[in-house]
């Protein structure tokens, strides 16, 4: 089934995508004509309008991600747009449907979402409700699914206290809101005191500026000396020792990134062994969830419901034009974001 299907000749059809043919900074990203082959079984073709960007894509561009790129490499795992072609064996979707593309593959989904068009497996799609914008959808799913994965790895509920580092990031924002929705008391951290008010506005019960405040001491005061039940950390480095100190007996530190390391593969855990007595540290990735259909279905159901109840809202830092992808990656690498960074395709 097809409507105005793009021609195979990318230059003639106006189809484009971002790729890089060498490793390096944002300047290696280039816009090239896109040619798509015949649609494979189980796939759909999406005309993309909004693209969600993620920090790991900047790492991938420099070969600092867990998976090495094969050059020339494409990018992109989430976006929003409309269906223009559907394989004959696909059910539940029709040409013209507005859809969000979910990050179910790494480091790209299908042919990659940094593009005007993408061929993706139908399993990566969710319908977009009429009252939801493309921008809201492109901002939601990586952050929401990663946060849900973490928040359900060790179930939390009323009476638990959790710590969320880098609370103003998109995943941090989602973690604050989901943990709060599950009934936990949320302590969120940021580097400087200037951003503590943002954390409280996002729903954190307490905010700590790690550059000039005693993290472990403040957590002890907040929890009556017990410490945090679960810690969600994406910072790593020296902060990790303080987080372990702030963790309760039989508590868990769940790491999902290492912002202090320019290369995720070079990140290390440097914590005194005795500090881990009756505590645990583990690394959690999104694919613990998306590789299992039942868990992914539960996550999608929760996220859709939480948004409708107003319990989950992912803020948008800014929206740049598709052709400004190099500038977008400079912003990604700066780390100075308050919400999701998006590209608009016209």
From TrEMBL:
Keyword Oxidoreductase found: yes
CDD domains cross-referenced by the UniProt entry: MDR2
Gene3D superfamilies: Medium-chain alcohol dehydrogenases, catalytic domain, NAD(P)-binding Rossmann-like Domain
Residue span(s) of domain Enoyl reductase (ER): 24-343
SUPFAM superfamilies reported in the protein's UniProt record: GroES-like, NAD(P)-binding Rossmann-fold domains
Keywords from the UniProt entry: NADP, Oxidoreductase
Pfam families in UniProt: ADH_N, ADH_zinc_N
Protein name (database record): NADPH:quinone reductase
Biological source species: Mycolicibacterium hippocampi
Organismal lineage: Bacteria, Bacillati, Actinomycetota, Actinomycetes, Mycobacteriales
